[in-house]
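Predict the structure of Transglutaminase-like superfamily protein.
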Amino acid sequence: MGKLLSTGLALLLCMAAPTAKGGDPVYPAKDIPDSLKKDAHLVRRIDETTIRIIDETEARVIFHYVTTVLDEAGAEDTEVMLFYNKLQDIRSISGALFDAEGRLVKRLKQSDIQDVSGAGGGTLMTDTRIKHHQFNYSVYPYTVEYTVEMRYNSLFFLPSWTPQAGSDCTVELGKLTITAPATYALRYQSYRYNGQPVVTTEKENKIYTWEVKQLPAMKKESYATEFYRRTPSILLCPSDFTMGGFKGNLNTWKDFGKFAWQLNEGRDVLPDAIKSKVATLTQGLSREEKIKALYRYLQQNYRYIDITLGIGGWQTFDAASVAANGYGDCKALTNFMMSMLKEAGIRSNWALVKAGDDEHSFEADFPSPQFNHVILCVPGEKDTTWLECTSNTLPAGYLGNFTDNRPVLLVDAENSKLAHTPVYGISSNEQIRHITATIDSSGNIDINASTFYTGLQQDHLHDRLHSLSREKQLELLRKGLDFGSYDINDYQCKENGTTLPSIEEHIQIKANNYATVTGKRMFVVPNIMTRSGRKLEEEGPRVSELQFEFPYRDIDSASIILPAGYKPESLPQPVTITGKFGHYSASVSLKGNTLTYIRKIEHKDGIFPAADYPELVKFYGAILRSDRSRLVLVKE
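Done. Here is the predicted structure for Transglutaminase-like superfamily protein.
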């Protein structure tokens, strides 16, 4: 359910600023305090958003941005991208470019603005278009100013406000002003903002004002939470609103779900031919078998394609159109699957979800349009089955890291509520690898590796197998191998179609000079294929909490036959590390000329306090050293 209107942008837009008149300079770069230049690539001199809510059907928004670009790295973030459609239109755009002294270099001409379709790969139909522009200037520093006025034909998508565009952007002045009828219940949620908005009354309106000044650059932090939670941000959401002729309210999740239900009510009527097909496919099957049979039919006969027209970002095409066309977007395919289950006597619910591999954050106490996708929830007496209806390859009941372990809104006529998608624990996300290898006297190695991936650890490989050619798969495999000169002599994968999916991978590799031979000595790293590359730098005071999306377990065992005539001079000592982030162990033993290496790591998921970062640095550093430790052999 792609976003209908991202006011999103790299640099959104703008308002009406004191543009240079008669050659008078404005925004000279020398006026920027040194504190705002430190660690910055661009400085937001002014970030002003002014919103006027007319009524529950309309809002006018003016964006005004003045940004000084300090260097080439900052220039990458100055492109304006504006999405517009029937629910959000652009009234005007103006802009100007100034040199370092603040002298006017160029004004924006309307002919300079590119206007293109919002259709991307996989999009069949959309009424969304994009206007975008960037001043191409390379004499640093320079300043750009944009002013954009927009009309929102629904309050459903009120823009959020985050004046700091990124960690390398500082802010001189940021201001959000909202004017609304005094009787309108404005809803908002703030992050990293000290205090409350200033609220004043003017005639029949209330005016809300937020303001920030002198925001410094932020360090880029590993494993950080979403950026809007680390910098002053205001999320906005309506109470009463109208969209596409439908009235709604977002005060509670129940209200939200009721609105979504109304948008899509009556769109589940199947053609007679599909009803007959459902009866044939499910005859004599158990409830669970019916779900799997109908899901398999959906996957084999219908395909996903993006469609966003009118209020199509939230309203589905009916089941009959999917049956006739053989395709649909996430809403349409989910609705079609729900309709087939209903015909088979099985109840199910739409589940609105914020999808994405790293999109686990969710504001559960702030009902608002945080969703970008829909899946199907099929509740049962004991277990719930979740279906990703846009996938032609996933097994029934498995979601993967695109929608796992996060809140969803189950849509119902009168009882919509939040639920949670499956959590795949550490025992579900395994990588178990066994290697047999032989090293010759020149240090070359022959490797036979068998790896068993389960759950979220197999997702990346599953995607490769179903979307890439064998040549491209091998190319990506090579990028992940830490050898110098080598050949892949065999590569095979086999998928096991269980509810918790797994993949068996078999690789044969011949690598030259794997072991280092120096005189009588041979140096061998017993960890052949699963070496940690994570070396974290010590940081000063950390702002963000640490976030790890899912837990996993890796187990490696390697049997390495060493060349005859060598004896160990030193063996790496066994390593065991246990802490709040997980557990790691590694050991090496030698019997005859066979070296045995055992490695195991269990990594926890979750959100950890920022103060725990030094312990993480220590944990990863110890693993890095252990994974690269060497066995020293001496020739007899």
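The longest strand covers residues 42-55.
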